[in-house]
Amino acid sequence: MKYYSTNGKAPIADLHKAVVKGLAEDRGLYMPERIKKLPKEFFDTIETKSFQEIAHTVADAFFGEDVEADALKKIVYDTLSFDCPVVKVKDNIYTLELFHGPTLAFKDVGARFMARLLQYFIRNTQNKQVNVLVATSGDTGSAVANGFLGVEGIHVYVLYPKGKVSKIQESQFTTLGKNITAVEVDGVFDDCQALVKSAFMDEELNHHMKLTSANSINVARFLPQAFYYFNAYARMKALGKADNLVMCVPSGNFGNICSALFGHEMGLPIKRFIAANNANDIFYKYLQTGKYEPKASVQTLANAMDVGDPSNFARIYDLYGKSHERISSLISGATYSDEQIRETMRQCYAETGYTLDPHGACGYRALQEGLKDNEVGVFCETAHPAKFKETVDNIIGGDIQIPERLAAFMRGKKQSVEMTKNFDDFKAFLMSR
Ligand SMILES: *Cc1c(COP(=O)(O)O)cnc(C)c1O
């Protein structure tokens, strides 16, 4: 499969290059040249298949031309070492729980898949270790670090702003050891990002060591997210509830919903989609006006969706031939204030006993408000509510249980390298490795 850039000015890439580079030379996002339709027979019996079997078929359509069959199957099965179940919340509203992975958020799926695919591509360059640099404001670092943990031939450097991520988040990438190094930068997130960017551009450093990114726009991180939408359809079909399915995705950078749309293009019978936003309403406004006007993000309770210029908009725009009409006839939007998020979490808990996290709350509310009589809705719970324990406890007046695998991180011993925000210091550190 060939990959082109959404900006149309970079050379066509193969999968190997698209995965190692992440972003195209013209700063566009890579798109697969073709999206294969899956046959009707696949959907006819999909409810009899396991999550891994379904994912393997989907992975084969995306990556089968470029990865040996046995290796691809192993990558898929290793990635999906946990389930993404569909759970009933109330009549006609179900949730796709994406938080059963190691760091309790949906990003585990893409990060685990990418780590294994990257390892596959570098398998023949044995003595040359690949170094992944990732800047994080909290959640990406944990998903990437845990996704790559123990993967041979790859070392991960997680740069994070000192004192600016929550203790829970910090513990998820500073306690791992092995091939993960946490770099605690005396600065803000943008300083971390700037250090990573400078590193990629520094010739001497790139000569010294092989560097790559694990950015969320990487095709190996975003496409595998389609797996769980096919699985959700299968599980809903088994319940006899799949005929008028509405998929609602709490969205920030729009990678997650974009993978669902790719699934739809492959023939997944979802009737329509809802992108649920917090107060960062750029996509919502685009749907109403046809104008895409990025702006600075505002801080909200659903902070993983605080994005003012969603990167994957470029992919959605490209996928539908830049047609506002096509986009807005398939996807509708919703936008909620922090107050509405709180109200929804309280109301859902009181009415159904289900504990929403602030991101999932946007999805649940959008279905409650937007679902028509004959439709059944599934919204993504993109993270476990315990990841936001203080906020969630405050809002619903409870004491939410911290799952053991999260508690285990918090008991671990913190190890990090202190760093200034000066690139020369960071470079000297990497050169000494
Ligand atoms: C990253 C994230 C989102 C947003 O997903 P996008 O793919 O960026 O739209 C939503 N919820 C949680 C918990 C996240 O970590």
Task: Describe the protein.
The protein is an alpha/beta fold and 433 residues long. Helix content is 44%, strand content 16%. The protein is built from 20 helices and 14 strands. It has helices at residues 15-21, 40-44, 51-63, 69-79, 107-121, 139-148, 167-174, 189-201, 203-208, 219-222, 226-238, 255-265, 282-289, 313-319, 324-330, 338-352, 358-370, 389-396, 404-411, 423-431, and strands spanning 2-5, 13-14, 30-32, 86-90, 93-97, 130-135, 154-161, 180-185, 210-213, 245-250, 272-277, 331-335, 376-381, 417-419. The strands form 3 sheets. The chain has a 6-stranded mixed beta sheet, with helices on both faces. Helix 3 (51-63) crosses helix 4 (69-79). The longest helix has 15 residues, at 107-121. The chain is globular. The two termini are 36 Å apart. Bound molecules: pyridoxal-5'-phosphate.
Key attributes of the depicted protein:
globular; binds pyridoxal-5'-phosphate; 44% helix; 14 strands; 16% strand; 5-stranded parallel beta sheet; 433 residues; alpha/beta; 6-stranded mixed beta sheet; 20 helices
